[in-house]
Design a protein that fits this description.
Elements lengths: L1 E5 L9 E9 L5 E4 L5 E6 L4 E5 L7 E3 L2 E4 L6 E4 L4 E8 L19 E3 H4 L3 H9 L5 H15 L8 H14 L5 H8 L3 H11 L4 H16 L8 H7 L5 H9 L3 H10 L13 E2 L2
Antiparallel strand pairs: 1-2, 2-9, 3-8, 3-11, 4-7, 4-9, 5-6, 5-8, 7-10
Helix pairs in contact: 2-3
Length: 277
């Protein structure tokens, strides 16, 4: 499967880390996706994609056109079709707010069909790019759609969330939330309220996800791993907590999967999604 990505031009880069296109035959049809500090939009230009929540009480979903999803606090499972043509928009945790006219809490741990948020947008994008457009042209079409959807006036509190969320990002979640609130000159309750509005989770929860993401990236599967030290550095009480909450595997099982299925060449350095064994 081929990956082509680009960082959008300003002002979109304030809210979006990258836009990317996946095309071809997937190396692994089913992947386990842990929570990461981001929100997403996916435009599906191929056969339907299937999704399962790790919460067994939530019914599975099938998307033929695409879906929005906010910040996830637990893992989920994604099944690609036999051939993939999928565009992803990788929002910063707070970045989806100026594009979706709905509270971020309604997108937390949920998939929402793209046309439920952007009416008829998937058909418009399909008509623009056709079936044979190169990946870079497809990305430009999605970027144009994003520009047209960007709110002219940012909602109240988004600047505060962007500033303090950016500090969490650069520190990998290591800054205490109380220190963030003090530096911003607001109360902890006010900061939490604004984060729930624009991110869908509290700053404390987002910091925890940033720490987990840092832990995952820091694992070198080719060397012995000191799991207690890594778990402690990321703020987890024990190794079982790490597996239970985010990966669905024990640390030993996770490391074995990483060794069996190294990252594909040409893909970005993302150690989050793992094949379902």
């Amino acid at each position: 499967m081929e990956y082509v990505g680009r960082v959008p031009a300003p002002p979109l880069d304030r809210f979006i880390d990258d836009i990317y296109c996946l095309t071809g035959v997937p190396r692994h049809r089913r992947v386990n996706v842990p929570p990461m500090p981001s929100a997403h939009l996916f435009i599906n230009l191929s056969e339907p994609v299937r999704l399962w929540d790790s919460d067994p009480s939530v019914p599975p979903a099938v998307f033929a056109d695409g879906w929005f999803m906010g910040v996830w606090t637990r893992r989920f499972l994604l099944e690609y079709p036999t051939r993939v043509r999928l565009v992803g928009v990788h929002f910063k945790p707070w970045g989806i707010s100026p594009f979706a006219e709905m509270p971020a809490t309604e997108l937390r741990d949920r998939w929402v069909p793209v046309d439920a948020v952007w009416q008829r947008s998937s058909d418009r994008i399909r008509n623009q790019v056709g079936e044979l457009a190169p990946a870079i042209e497809t990305l430009r079409a999605v970027e144009r759609e994003l520009r047209s959807r960007l709110a002219e006036t940012l909602a109240r509190g988004l600047d505060l969330v962007q500033h303090t969320g950016g500090r969490l990002e650069t520190s990998h979640g290591a800054i205490p939330v109380g220190a963030l609130a003090d530096a911003a000159g607001v109360s902890g309750n006010h900061l939490a309220t604004q984060f729930k509005s624009h991110v869908g989770v509290t700053p404390k929860r987002l910091a925890r996800i940033y720490r987990f993401a840092r832990l995952i990236v820091s694992v070198d599967a080719l060397r012995p791993v000191d799991w207690p030290q890594l778990a402690h550095a990321a703020g987890y009480f024990d190794q079982a907590h790490f597996g239970r909450e985010f990966t669905g595997h024990t640390p030993t099982e996770y490391l074995a999967l990483r060794r069996r299925f190294p990252a594909e060449q040409g893909f970005p350095p993302d150690s989050g999604p793992m094949p379902v064994d």
